[in-house]
Design goal:
binds aspartic acid; 4-stranded antiparallel beta sheet; alpha+beta; globular
């Protein structure tokens, strides 16, 4: 396994579609991760600490701040973790869980790597995670904003045909189609001082979307990847990101010796400018973030 190369490093993001005004939440989460790194020395513990702080923040599209689905009631969340000690866990379409990233971490201790839907929710109850589904005024306001803002002819998501939502609608409530997009993910990548790497991500998904929709966040190699050369996390519309296996593709370039900043920029350049995408990464010698939007993020290095 990797030998110690560098001081520990943390990069945290709050989503490619999020507001830079909320960057203080990323700074706090990065501090939380560094503090955790001091205590346990474990890159994965630090990444999970950062992401659960962002899930609890309420301003980001993850955990307590997750977007409401188009029925205005359901929240479906995805999360993932991976590290260079072989731990890999993810959950998709889970409901009523306060910290999906902790659930993804728990999946890594089961015989499986990914649990979805009702099974994932039941797993949360089986390991003692209480039901938690408060909907904040902020979430309701965001939902109202999407629903009112978007009754027009603007494409709902760049590159996606909004009429298909109409055709395949699978909610119990009737379609009241918005024409806009709410997206975002939170993520953290960490390099431990022992040379290990970890990544953790969490999202409330995107809107508009069909019930049961899963993006890139819980999909290995698309939304997240960690290996002996580093760790990468992506944010942006999952339907686009998965087509490029974005996290693994960028990881591969870093592993081939491309400077980290160039690898991140090359990853972003795979997408048309109207498709908001963001990336964060740590490597043996570097750490950074890159986005074609005003993505809030924070980078911190251990002293
Ligand atoms: N990647 C997330 C998804 O598609 C959303 C985002 O990061 O903006 O679910």
């Amino acid at each position: 396994m990797s030998k110690p190369q560098q001081a520990g490093a943390v990069v945290v993001h709050g989503g490619a579609g999020a507001s830079r005004e909320n960057e203080d939440g990323c700074v706090l989460a990065a501090r939380r991760a560094l503090a955790q790194l001091e205590v346990s020395g474990e890159a994965l513990d630090a990444a999970v600490a950062a992401v659960s702080a962002l899930e609890d923040d309420g301003r980001f599209n993850a955990g307590s701040g997750s977007v409401l689905c188009l029925d205005g009631a359901t929240v479906e969340m995805d999360a993932s973790i991976m590290d260079t000690r072989g731990r890999l866990g993810a959950i998709a379409c889970v409901q009523s869980v306060k910290n999906p990233v902790l659930l993804a971490r728990a999946v890594a201790d089961t015989p499986h790597w990914l649990l979805a839907g009702d099974g994932a929710t039941r797993f949360a109850r089986a390991i003692g995670m209480p039901e938690s589904a408060p909907v904040s005024e902020r979430q309701r306001a965001d939902h109202r904003k999407i629903m009112t803002q978007l009754a027009g002819s603007v494409p709902a998501m760049p590159g996606l045909n909004i009429r298909l939502f109409d055709r395949f609608w699978n909610y119990n409530t009737p379609l009241n189609l918005p024409e806009g997009v709410a997206c975002d993910t939170v993520g953290a990548v960490v390099r431990g001082a022992d040379g290990h790497f970890a990544v953790a991500c969490s999202t409330g998904g995107s809107a508009p979307s069909l019930l049961g929709r899963v993006g890139d966040t819980p999909i290995i190699g698309s939304g997240f990847y960690a290996g002996p050369e580093g760790a990468v996390a992506a944010t942006g519309i999952g339907e686009h990101i998965v087509r490029h296996l974005l996290a693994r593709t960028v990881y591969g370039w870093i592993g081939d010796g491309m400077p980290l900043d160039r690898a991140l920029q090359r990853g972003i350049d795979l997408f048309a400018p109207e498709i908001k995408v963001g990336l964060i990464a740590v490597s043996r010698h570097d750490a950074g973030a890159c986005s074609n939007s005003d993505m809030p993020y924070s980078k911190m290095v251990q002293r």
